[in-house]
Amino acid sequence: MSGSKIVVTGASGVLGTAVHKAFEKALRYEVVGLKNKSAASHLVQLDLTDKEATKQKLEEIKPTWVIHCAAERRPDVAEKDPVGTQLLNVEVPGYLAELAKAINFTLVYISTDYVFDGRSPPPGGYTPELPTNPLQIYGQTKRDGETAVLQARQQGSRAVVLRVPVLYGPAPNNADSAVNILVDVVQDRSKESNMDDYGIRYPTNVLDIASFLVRLTNISPDTLPPILHYSANESFTKYQMCKIFADILGLNDMNHIKPVSTPPTGAGATSRPYNCHLSTAETEKLLPLECTGFRTWWEEYLHDGGK
Question: Which residues contact 211 (CB under 8 A, 6 or more apart)?
């Protein structure tokens, strides 16, 4: 929507960076990216867990839309720091949803396919209204964040939940993405690795999500459903992704990577769903997805030196 003012939280992360750049590229928006600890000078520092500071900053900016990408996205870290994860993944989006009504903006809360247990996805994938059943603290806190946002929506806030699966795309460090990091694993033959060949994943490009969000802001927020799903439709295990990377890079073998076809077990293992395929049928009634092919994107990206 021309003249809209957009705030992107977590604008130094892989998704947030892509979203921030996409809105800037569209030219018809005034865009403010928020960071917490990043050194990026073009972003505005704000501790979202500081309610008063957050309220003051958003009152000052007066955004039309807030795209909330900031989160604790790492399941293993969430298990080790449940209190901090609860604060960032539940209390922050809940408060932003309250501010959406008070300051008069529309909140888009980025959630995850991990709100489902993935044990028996229906044909075509989980639809937005199906009951959730997260298996670990990360999924539980993202589900609880959804609940807080949707409760505020029922109280008059303009807010929508956008669930996405595992993400990849341009990243300063491959470790910033659970998919990108696999490139490093494939290339480092000095280290043997066990690789998940059990869980079915639907890796989705952050550039595609960013483009979708720009297009979404052209729709009247009053017509948006409470929950939307965005996901690519290609499915892979992490081991299968490693094989694709090895092939693109011209590596003849992956003897240093051992496929593991059973779910993680033992002390310290974090439960991960088997197959959380998200149905995008409701989303596609609003807008086309326009998803990039997984191998096609990686071939170009890796041949360009990961730039």
Answer: 22, 290
